[in-house]
Design a protein that fits this description.
Elements (H helix, E strand, L loop, with lengths): L1 H43 L22 H13 L44 H8 L2 E4 L8 E4 L13 H7 L11 H4 L3 H9 L16 E3 L31 E3 L21 H16 L3 H30 L4
Antiparallel strand pairs: 1-2, 3-4
Length: about 325
């Protein structure tokens, strides 16, 4: 009996040692593969892009959205971006909710006092914005679909009826939905701003295909489109040559100076300003409750600090009398 138990223990120890050796080999192989892939990516220049870091109003524990900037950003989206990009997660009423760019605590002049403009469905600005979009509805009593002006309860309409038509209209590329674009990309706000302002003339060393556009802030791999004279016999980049930063993709430069007419005369109508404003709008669209969440966080921290002080004082008071 004792001999049998010893044999079982020995077998278990052998199995454990084999498992440990196998795990070490697997981890070593993964680390080696990661090092090779990372080294190849760095040697090729993949992902090497210029990222601009801008000061945003909404950063930091006390940050909040610039309401006027978000309003201008919506104007840029409506004028330029809405022709290709959808915002499936956003409804018109969101624009008039508390924290939204068109929220109203009280109605403007000319609106009856019986109307509650804090309700997004009765907000005159939201109703006007929604009515500018034709919405396909139906079927009617005859079984036909029809067009009607948008309502605050409607979602933002998509520019294309389906993905196939969207790709056909954009040379095979599918424009991404912008509802959560600032959360779906690393350094979201800086990424969007850098991308919109990162269009430059194509470097002479690159061979860009028709329908593709060079951008210094797009995370690509320019070694794949390098002209042959900048490569050696083995297809590698010649020694001493610095690869251009950025990459190429299918979206042409969407903004130009003066393309959007702002009502405020003191706001410059430039690509840089348009990019900042639409980035602020897209950040709000991705996190419409950001300000309320930060206020709650600050209140919670304040409560915890006060509670900690009370507990510390009460503990000292109680145990100071103990012998």
């Amino acid at each position: 009996m004792v001999r049998t138990l010893n044999m079982i223990r020995t077998l278990n120890m052998i199995r454990t040692l084999n498992m440990i050796r196998t795990m070490k080999k697997t981890i070593g192989a993964l680390v080696s593969a990661f090092a090779v892939v990372s080294g190849a990516a760095l040697a090729a220049g993949g992902g090497d892009a210029v990222l601009k870091h801008e000061h945003w109003h909404f950063t930091g524990p006390f940050g909040s959205f610039d309401k006027e900037a978000v309003q201008r950003g919506y104007q840029v989206y409506r004028t330029v971006c809405a022709g290709c990009h959808s915002m499936d997660q956003l409804a018109f009423r969101n624009l008039g909710q508390k924290g939204g760019p068109f929220y109203l605590e009280r109605c403007p002049e000319g609106v009856p006092e019986t109307v509650d403009c804090s309700n997004p469905n009765d907000n005159p600005y939201v109703k006007q914005i929604a009515s500018e979009f034709p919405i396909t509805d139906g079927p009617d009593d005859f079984g036909d679909m029809f067009q009607r002006p948008g309502l605050p309860s409607d979602g933002f309409p998509t520019p294309y009826p389906n993905e196939q038509i969207a790709r056909l209209a954009n040379g095979g590329a599918y424009p991404p939905d912008l509802s959560l674009i600032t959360k779906a990309r690393p350094n979201g706000a800086d990424y969007v701003y850098s991308l919109l302002t990162g269009y430059e003339d194509t470097p002479p060393s690159l061979n860009v295909a028709p329908g593709q556009y060079y951008n210094v802030s797009y995370p690509g791999d320019t070694s794949q489109i390098l002209k042959p004279e900048y490569k050696d016999a083995d297809g590698y980049v010649v020694e001493g040559f610095e690869l251009p930063k950025g990459g190429v993709f299918a979206m042409p430069k969407p903004l130009a100076d003066g393309v959007v007419d702002y009502e405020q005369e003191d706001i410059p109508e430039t690509v840089d300003q348009y990019s900042k404003d639409v980035t602020e709008f897209l950040m709000w669209a991705a996190e419409p409750k950001l300000e309320a969440r930060k206020r709650l966080g600050v209140m919670s921290l304040g409560y915890l600090i006060i509670l900690t002080g009370i507990l510390y004082w009460s503990t000292r008071e109680i145990w100071s009398k103990a012998k």
